[in-house]
Design goal:
Helix content: 25-40%
CATH architecture of the largest domain: 4-Layer Sandwich
Strand order of the largest sheet: 3-2-4-1-10-9-11
Number of domains: 2
Number of helices: 18
Largest sheet: 7 strands, antiparallel
CATH class of the largest domain: Alpha Beta
Number of strands: 24
Shape: elongated
CATH topology of the largest domain: Glutamine Phosphoribosylpyrophosphate, subunit 1, domain 1
Structural class: alpha+beta
């Protein structure tokens, strides 16, 4: 999931559209934009809101340019790319942003993450007479805001966020402000930027990753901090001050999602105050130290990446393997097609081999008769990796060695990554025996990065010198935010 939002920009929807483009990698199921603008009616100026959302990629959902220039005209916008974790995919009512009108006025919300006490809260609210319009966890936050007894809107938001648990990075808009927030553990990223308008006035934005800033010409200011609610309003425009309040009084040490660095974020982004590219290169170098591959006499090891998420980690692996005295050459051995539509028709939904062939093709001259090292970021079920190895074997390399820049995935994510159940994970199917996993994948050798070297590759203090930790639950089973027992029994329709 991805979100972006803009305040005080005359083309807020257009900018939100481009920001969603740059964040498309975080969600391809659906997209939506909500905007607000000031209009004058018989009673004077008032705020009017408009929304457009649908299933599909950003290009598909907003293919009519009139949507952005006229229908969604406004100076405030929040936008969302959907990647479903809770709430059935394909249903229009589950597409964000969400919008409500309640006693304090108009209010919109976009959410990146996943709540872990959804079922308990949903049952409690149902008993109180709440009527739900969606099957997502995000709607809960709106109902909790509307039911709060706090006297001001920020207090109502704070009440709601003190009630929910789990992972949430939020962009919210009211009649007067853009509001952003991150859960006390800071599991998902969220950054603040600003854009100099043609009239030299500042517009502000928030986004899941800073690559969204680059496409619209915004400058990075800082992250929304874990446990922080940020308010951007007319006061911000006048003074440059971004006000904020804490969610809980005694927050834990942050536990950022380490998988954001491994796979989910773009390498040209800055998340959790660190460049993703820098971390991924470290991952590759640490992996080379732990699991080098030696060349045959008189030849070089051929190192290739699996486009695109392992690109920079592969450069780190190849350079470090060379420094360690192993003659190494980085090569482009796999070509990825970037023109495969999300609705591509295939003979059988689970035909992974066909999916891999459609997505990748080998450069046979690079691979034939070579000792090949394939660097990838992770292995989940293993079915895609099996098909990829089979494809590479078709190019007739002498050997195929697979190197993974993360530890074995042994547990499902509860905070916003759509990992399968424990039984579907290939590591668990083979008792975490790396040799057996490698045999199942069809490689000559398989090695993962250790959890210790993974943690050595990421920063452990923030820009203020305060300690930060990481969620490694998908590798260790140590969930930093409690998972309600009832949430473990989610029915298929809600997953």
């Amino acid at each position: 999931m991805a979100l972006s939002a803009f305040f005080n920009h005359p083309e807020a929807a257009v900018n939100a559209y481009y920001a969603l483009h740059s964040l498309q990698h975080r969600g391809q199921e659906a997209a939506g934009i909500l905007v607000g603008r000031t209009v004058t009616n018989g009673h004077g100026p008032c705020r009017k809101f408009a929304i457009h959302k649908n299933n599909g990629l950003v290009l598909e959902v907003f293919k009519d340019p009139v949507l952005l220039t006229h229908t969604l005209a406004g100076d405030v916008a929040i936008a969302h790319n959907r990647y479903s974790t809770t709430g059935a995919s394909g249903k229009l009512e589950n597409i964000q942003p969400f919008f409500m009108n309640y006693r304090e006025g108009n209010f919109g919300l976009a959410h990146n993450g996943n709540l872990t006490n959804t079922r308990v809260l949903r049952e409690e609210l149902k008993d109180l007479g709440t009527i739900f319009q969606t099957t997502t966890d995000s709607e809960l936050i709106l109902h909790l805001i509307a039911r709060s007894g706090a006297k001001d809107q920020i207090g109502q938001v704070r009440d709601a966020l003190r009630t929910v648990r789990g992972a949430y990075s939020l962009a919210m808009m009211s009649d007067t402000a853009l509001i952003a927030a991150r859960d006390p553990n800071g599991i998902r990223p969220l950054a603040i930027g600003r854009i100099k308008r043609a009239d030299d006035e500042w517009a502000y934005m928030v986004a899941s990753e800073t690559c969204a800033f680059d496409i619209v010409g915004a400058e990075y200011i800082r992250d929304v901090q874990p446990n922080e609610i940020v308010i951007i309003d007319a006061h911000t425009i006048t003074t440059g001050e971004i006000r904020s309040v804490s969610i809980v009084d005694d927050p834990p040490v942050p536990t950022h999602c380490i998988f954001e660095y491994i796979y989910f974020s773009r390498p040209d982004s800055k998340i959790f105050e660190e460049n993703v590219d820098r971390v991924r290169r470290k991952l590759g170098k640490k992996l080379a130290h732990e699991s080098p591959v030696q060349p045959e006499p008189g030849r070089k090891v051929t190192v290739i990446n699996v486009p695109d998420s392992s690109n920079t980690a592969t450069l780190g692996y190849a350079s470090e393997n060379q420094k360690m005295g192993n003659a190494t050459k980085y090569q482009i051995g796999l070509i990825r097609s970037h023109y495969v539509g999300r609705t591509f028709i295939q003979p059988g939904q689970d035909n992974r081999e066909m999916k891999v062939k459609v997505k990748f093709n080998t450069v046979k001259g690079v691979l034939k008769d070579r000792r090949v090292v394939v660097v990838d970021d992770s292995i989940v079920r293993g079915t895609t990796s099996q098909a990829l190895v089979k494809l590479i074997r078709g190019a007739e390399p002498k050997e195929v060695h697979l190197r993974i820049t993360s530890p074995p995935i042994t547990h499902p994510c509860k905070y916003g990554m759509d990992f399968p159940s424990k039984g579907e994970l290939i590591a668990n199917q083979h008792g975490c025996d790396v040799k057996k996993i490698g045999e199942a994948l069809g490689v000559d050798s398989l090695e993962y990065l250790s959890i210790d070297k993974l943690l050595e590759s990421v920063p452990h203090v923030n820009s203020e010198g305060k300690p930060i930790g990481y969620c490694t639950a998908c590798f260790t089973g140590n969930y930093p935010v409690p998972i309600d027992e009832i949430a473990e029994r989610q029915v298929a329709n809600d997953d």
